[in-house]
Amino acid sequence: CGRLLIGGRGTLGVVAVTEHAGVARKILMLLKKQGQVPTETLVRKNRRLKKHNTYVLRVPPCLEGTSLLKKIGMISTDNGIAESDRRLWKRSCCRRAYLRGVFEGGGSVNKPAGEYHLELVTDNDDFSKALVKLLQSFNLQAGLSSRKQDCVIYLKGADQITEFLNIIGAHNALLLFENARVVKEVRNRVNRIVNCETANLGKTINAAVRQVSKIHMLAERGVLKRLSPALQEIADVRLEYPEASLQELVGLLDGKVGKSGINHRLRKLEQIADDYEDEQRGDNNR
User: Fold this and answer.
1) Where are the alpha helices (DSSP H) in the chain?
2) Domain identity same for 157 and 103
């Protein structure tokens, strides 16, 4: 957050307060680039909650501070407070710089390992609506919600977030985000493949156990030997290789029968076994 300071003889200054050391360093560096602007820096230890340090950067009321505030558009040339920041948004480069400052002052991005989420937080309702329109000018689909006393402008989706980081010139953060995004997508793809293969393996095993059981029953009741040579052949191969998949059975039969043909014959054996069991139960009930 920040506030303006009013001194004697129409001089102005400014105070910026942040809990982020990186933001404090950036503000101080930008002030130093402006030349002979007097700057005061204070670090306060916050004894409440998470005990974060609070960094206070102060430009006392002076001619240099007044000139700086005019230069960055915070006050008008007659020392009046600028009524709107929209006049700073005329050029694309200025809009990008403005968003960069907004993000450094109140923005955050979730780790890509979780949900893709970027947000800008402010306690000013009008300012939040203006930011939404500003983001939309870059074809970003910004949403707006409330959190306690704050307004939260947010972006969802990896593509939207990477585009925002590119717009504000956060290229190092963009590379880190993309690397984490790739790792996440590869991990998710591997997990899907493993889960799919695990499910397929379970289906294969369950089908094989069921088929072997049916074939044993047909053999014990003398039904198997009365079946066609083709069905007897696939029954013998399945009993000899109970753990084999359909594709492996194709190889064991030297490719004479395809997967669909083998699957059809095994289903036929199961149907014959089920019909035989139904017939036997019917005879026993008579």
Assistant:
1) 21-33, 63-71, 92-106, 125-136, 158-167, 171-220, 229-240, 246-252, 259-284
2) yes
